[in-house]
Amino acid sequence: MRSGPSGKWCGCSPGGAAAARLWLAALLRPGRIVFVLAVLTANSAHSASAQQSPPAPTRPPNAYEELQAFSSVLTQIRVNYVDSVTYRELVHAAIDGMLHALDPHSNFMSRTEWDRQEALMRGELPGIGVQVEEEDSAATVLAVDPRAPAAKAGVQPGDRIAAINDSSVAGLKPADIALRLSGPKGSTVRIRIERGPRLEPETLSVTLRRELLGTPRVTMARMAAPATGYLDLQWFAPKAGDDVRDAVRLLQAQGARRLVLDLRNNPGGLMDAAVDIASEFLPQGALVFRTEGRKKDAIHQFVTKHDGAFRDMPVIVLINGQSASAAEALAGSLQDHDRALILGRRSFGKALVQTGFLIMPSSDIVELTIARVFTPSGRLIQRRYRGIRYEEYWAFAGKAGAAEDTLVQFKTDHGRTVRGGGGIVPDVVLPVASGFPVWWSVAVDSGFADAVADSVAHTLPATAAARAQWLTGRQQWRDRLLVPWLARVRNRLHVTAQLDSALGERLALSLAARAATVRWPPDGGDELGVRNDPDIRAALEYFPRLAELLGTPAH
Predict the structure, then answer these.
(1) pLDDT value of position 509
(2) CA pair distance 148, 131, nearest whole angstrom
(3) Do 300 and 282 meet the contact criterion of CB atoms below 8 Å apart?
């Protein structure tokens, strides 16, 4: 039932000439209530309705009339809605809805939220080390800082945050959730996460201690094999270009003649940083990418200004479904210029440029999309978002867009065929690793993993020979770590903890890395992780065929 224009309560039923409008009038009599049914013929109803109906519009409403309609609705809600609501609540909800109607990445926030978020991005605000995005109406972890409390507690990309300190996060924007996860250094925050299918998820709660994490750009640079350097780029901060340049030079000093550049789980960052990094691997005058927008100042070609110091160095780039924004622009540029072979899984599919605009007099900020990013060959990285719900857009991350988009072919500098359709499709697609089960994260949060790994670590000799043997000692990892750890988990948590061979290898590797970190600090665990990462190992196998796979220049 709903309230009609006259203010009476009515029910309307469709029909032809026999249709009638019915309403119930309650007549109060002493001691009883008598209901009288009144019938109004369809013709009479039509006549009365016609007298009250406004004349049909002869033209579309102008901007002033549209705003007048919005103001009238706002007033009606304030005056007649069942609950009391403030103008601020209503206006901010309207702004959010308006921005969502434009695209999934335009955003509005208060000046306080903006300042705190900027501090969080600069690493000046203690947190737990996760980046959160909305995916299918759920606050979903997009990336986890490997040094952070969240990673140590077993939180993984793809986990859904359901509650913070026992308060549901339903309806909160990702920026609001990020700020709730931050707080004073050393303080704790408890999060409840869901993992697996939405209809039957596994849930767990973990308590994390907030830390001041700084601003990581290159989280790891080390030798992956003789003559092969490995560089893990966490995000595109203002000085990421300098960090990459310094890291590659350090690797060259250690004998690296080729490079694996890891952009997996990299959520992006600044466009200028992507240009700086690309410039080190491309010759002068190469187009890195271009942007197109409605305004003239949004149309720009980003071109390298010097010959890159590493322009002749063989490169393989790793990406996955959490590689987004600037990470995709860099990968797409190196792919189009045949400067790098791309391995992994299709990237996220986000390539819109946002700029913040000050809103007076409140000094709030609206981040508006002002341009789209295109790779040198002309591919649009951004997935389609028109015609689908805001929540559905996030659910399709790392998946192909509309079928017709993937049919369009583009050519690299050497004539190789690449396709659009949302995100960057790798030249070599690698299998997706299964996620860790919830009981693993519960066990990690309970300290079981550290306890078992640390006890074994202290029995290992602190020699270089023992370290080298441990790096490839898969049978030792299983016998000395995985088996006793599983026994403890099953006994303490009362779970069956069933696992297949692939999951068993991943769990054993994680435990072995912890033991290596404790026994051979500070980089024992890092070395073990790099040497045994399946994607990195796959990349090493493709270097001998790199020139062949990237093709020869077209004449």
Answers:
(1) 94
(2) 12
(3) no
User: Residues of the chain with pLDDT > 90: what percent?
Assistant: 53
Token pair, residue 439, equals: 């009981």
Burial of residue 237, with CB atoms counted within 10 A of its CB: 0-12 exposed, 13-18 middle, 19 or more buried: buried
Which residue do the tokens 């066990």 mark?
Answer: 443
Residues 541 and 539: their CA atoms lie apart, in Å, by: 5
Q: Could you read off the pLDDT of 350-384 as tens digits, one per residue? A: 989 999 999 998 899 999 999 999 999 999 988 88
- Residue 57: which residues within 8 A CB-CB, separation 6 or more? none
Q: Cβ atoms within 10 A of the Cβ of 284, count?
A: 12
Token pair of 466, please? 């023992």
Among 2.30.42.10, 1.10.3720.10, 3.90.950.10, 3.40.1010.10, what is the CATH number of 125-209? 2.30.42.10
Is pLDDT at 489 greater than 60 in this prediction?
A: yes
90-99, 111-120, 322-331: segment of lowest average pLDDT: 111-120
Task: Name the pTM for this structure.
Answer: 0.79
Phi and psi at residue 349, to the nearest 5°: 100, 45
Alpha-carbon span 150 to 159, nearest angstrom? 11
CB 227 within 8 A of CB 255: yes
Amino acid letter, 64: Y
Per-residue model confidence as pLDDT tens digits over 10-38 = 434 334 333 333 333 333 344 433 333 33
Query: Could you report the per-residue pLDDT of 492-539, keeping only the tens digit for each?
Result: 888 888 888 888 999 999 999 999 999 999 889 999 999 999 999 999
Between CA 346 and CA 319 the distance in angstroms is 7
User: Quick one: fold of 218-429?
Assistant: 2-enoyl-CoA Hydratase; Chain A, domain 1 (3.90.226)
User: What pairing do the DSSP bridges indicate for beta strands 258-262 and 315-319?
Assistant: parallel
- The domain segmentation of the chain, as residue ranges, is 1-50, 125-209, 218-429, 438-521
pLDDT for the residue 43: 42
Which secondary-structure segment (H or E) carries 26? strand 20-29
Whether the CB-CB separation of 158 and 131 falls below 8 Å is answered with: no
* Sequence-ordered list of residues with C-beta below 8 angstroms from that of 397, at least 6 positions apart, any chain: 133, 135, 321, 322, 348, 349, 383
Handedness of CA 348, 351, 353, 359 (dihedral sign): negative
Angstrom distance (rounded) from CA 280 to CA 306: 8
Cα gap 243→40, rounded to integer Å = 79
- Tell me whether residue 137 is exposed, middle or buried, using C-beta atoms within 10 angstroms of its C-beta: 0 to 12, 13 to 18, 19 or more: middle
Give the start-end residues of each E strand in 74-178. Answer: 107-109, 130-135, 138-144, 160-164, 167-168
* Residue (of 230, 228, 259, 433) closest to 341 by Cα position: 259
Q: With 60 as the cut, is the pLDDT of residue 3 above it?
A: no
Mean pLDDT (the chain) is 84
Structural contact between residues 270 and 326, judged by C-beta atoms closer than 8 angstroms: yes
Kindly report the number of other CB atoms within 10 A of residue 494's CB atom. Answer: 9
Question: What's the whole-number mean pLDDT along residues 428-457?
Answer: 87
